[in-house]
């Protein structure tokens, strides 16, 4: 902790005072939690019949696990495609030809500025006009996730390449590599490694965003899990707490992975 | 193009809502985010634990669920009523949800900003006899802010786009209107999308430029 | 090394794309042919509406729509176990039929002229009307006109609430929620006063919350629920209509309705008249 130096190391009296204050704060927070508990209790939110369904195996098998599969399916496909999109457009933006660089920049800036929700709506309702077929909810979600997160990853990778010392590409050219080889064999792998933590946190964003699939009826964790359970047991709040907990656990593990990759 | 022309007032109203949501939540997130940062580096262990627990939860929950909790949890179950008028009430609930979510990101950015401030700064402040609050508030936090102008800009842009999810608590902003218009003018989906996209480009691109300029101007020369 | 992993990723994507492309259904001219030769049907239903189409924890579906779908399928020669129910939401019903992802849709699907441009309808098998769902103890709310100054819940993307505001009660405040479950929560909690949509859907919720909620029972519109089929499937439409005719006549229709929403105290209507075309 580098910022532990913001205050003097307390003396014996200070330690005692800090302990007392800490206990007081903890008590205040617990009291707040208790008030929330009471208010929810007054509305029967802790009633056993709202919570026990969440422990049933068939509820998990019918609602939560298929929902989780949907969420992960869209997220994994999105991660692969967004990674590719990012790679291609980062390279394009680094090109020395203006006619490649400019359109690539326009595409990236456009998709970074448009809300994901609008992209998904557009893909879902506009595909028929655009390409003559109605695409599935899955495809619409993946389309949105890919273009938005791909643009962000393109920027991350580009920043990574630009942060590399010039000597890297100069040395590569000196060994007789061609432009494509320098980019593919020398610059991109290093940029990827340097930017791994940033890329993984973008994947956490992507995973959370896949929950937006519910607006076009894609069977993911919020739609299938939360709405499906709530329709049967009318327990929106308990189900939402469970679903949020699942997201938090997955994302925290991804976070930890990012840290470990960063440390290496 | 007809749809966009006919409905231009609805569209402008929708974007006005987007701007209001963004402005209020941005202010709220800045305040709450700064407070959370202060808590995370405070001498009291319970404050540190509470803040870091809050940040992990808020950062890792989909915004859809955060807004659902503010709408149903805070609004319906805690009985928080901010206005007799439903639309106003929903607006404030949406702001609370967006603030709760965004402040976690502001806190993360500021904390990494604090890490860029050289140790000597705080040590010098302490040697002058400044306590924790003054050291943080007068010396280190201002420098941290200047170091993270660019990330704060990205957070603001993300917030602007995230206001579209306020449809979860029943606020009629851009995404709701776009959807309604697609239903009414099914043959003009592409124009409608480009129209709304242009609105967001108009909001987000200047923000990006402004914050890029600010971050260069305000960078602490070391 | 990097180049190779890139190749692998490309191959994976190409394979995945190919797999999805081949996943389409075989093409039958009519749903009748498919039922006869394949002995299987995929039917689009709602999955989150108690009393009409609800996915239950054991993975099966229950509700009035489901009973109708099973009866019709049986008349076409498909046993209940050979039906695959697929969840549809309001936004994707036409798309599912056009793409052949489902063979028919039985999902509180109102027959409208706009929809007839894209799909064709058998039925109606039920005539619903827009109504209000209120707390059982609420005696003041007798109809849409009494909503002035009250708070009304509807589900996002549906127009019924706007209609109440423009035609019956200018002073009503509208709340849009994502799901009816959320509306029900807020009406039971007392923050909102009523929910509006088709009476039979409301009856499903009233039945689920025995005694706590009631349907006002003064419908102020008519919604004809039809069974959606491919646009030009005249043979299919006729066959499904024949099946419905039989269902109305032999009493199964009333029985199914009673079993699904009877517990709400909702006055069960007569079977509607089919509109063949």
Automatic annotation (TrEMBL), chain A:
Keywords recorded for this protein, A-Z: Cell membrane, Membrane, Transmembrane, Transmembrane helix, Transport
Gene Ontology MF terms: transmembrane transporter activity
GO terms of biological process kind: amino acid transport
Primary subcellular site in the record, as a coarse category: membrane
Any Pfam family hit: BPD_transp_1
Bilayer topology annotation: Multi-pass membrane protein
GO cellular component annotations of the record: ATP-binding cassette (ABC) transporter complex
TM regions (residue ranges): 21-40, 60-89, 110-131, 137-157, 194-216, 236-254
Xref: PROSITE patterns: ABC_TM1 (PS50928)
Subcellular location: Cell membrane
Listed InterPro entries: AA_ABC_transptr_permease_3TM, ArtM/GltK/GlnP/TcyL/YhdX-like, MetI-like, MetI-like_sf
Family according to the record: Belongs to the binding-protein-dependent transport system permease family.
Listed NCBIfam families: HEQRo_perm_3TM
PANTHER family on file: AMINO ACID ABC TRANSPORTER PERMEASE (PTHR30614:SF21), MEMBRANE COMPONENT OF AMINO ACID ABC TRANSPORTER (PTHR30614)
Protein name in UniProt: ABC transporter permease subunit
The species this protein was found in: Nonomuraea phyllanthi
Lineage: Bacteria, Bacillati, Actinomycetota, Actinomycetes, Streptosporangiales
From TrEMBL, chain B:
GO BP: any one term: amino acid transport
GO cellular component: ATP-binding cassette (ABC) transporter complex
GO molecular function, one term: transmembrane transporter activity
Key words, A-Z: Amino-acid transport, Cell membrane, Membrane, Transmembrane, Transmembrane helix, Transport
Protein location: Cell membrane
Domain of life (superkingdom): Bacteria
Keyword GTP-binding: no
PROSITE patterns, sorted: ABC_TM1 (PS50928)
InterPro entries with a match to the protein in the record: AA_ABC_transptr_permease_3TM, ArtM/GltK/GlnP/TcyL/YhdX-like, MetI-like, MetI-like_sf
Membrane-crossing segments per the record: 12-36, 57-79, 91-110, 148-172, 192-214
Family: Belongs to the binding-protein-dependent transport system permease family. HisMQ subfamily.
Protein name: ABC transporter permease subunit
TrEMBL record, chain C:
SMART domains: PBPb (SM00062)
Listed PROSITE patterns: PROKAR_LIPOPROTEIN, SBP_BACTERIAL_3
Alphabetical keyword list: Signal, Transport
Signal peptide start and end residues: 1-21
Keyword Isomerase listed: no
Gene3D superfamilies recorded: Periplasmic binding protein-like II (3.40.190.10)
Membrane-crossing segments per the record: none
GO cellular component entries: extracellular region; outer membrane-bounded periplasmic space
Protein origin, superkingdom: Bacteria
GO terms under biological process: amino acid transport
InterPro entries, per the entry: Bact_solute-bind_prot3 (IPR051455), SBP_3_CS (IPR018313), Solute-binding_3/MltF_N (IPR001638)
Stored PANTHER family: ABC TRANSPORTER GLUTAMINE-BINDING PROTEIN GLNH, AMINO ACID ABC TRANSPORTER PERMEASE
Family from the record: Belongs to the bacterial solute-binding protein 3 family.
Identification of the protein by name: Transporter substrate-binding domain-containing protein
Organism classification: Bacteria, Bacillati, Actinomycetota, Actinomycetes, Streptosporangiales
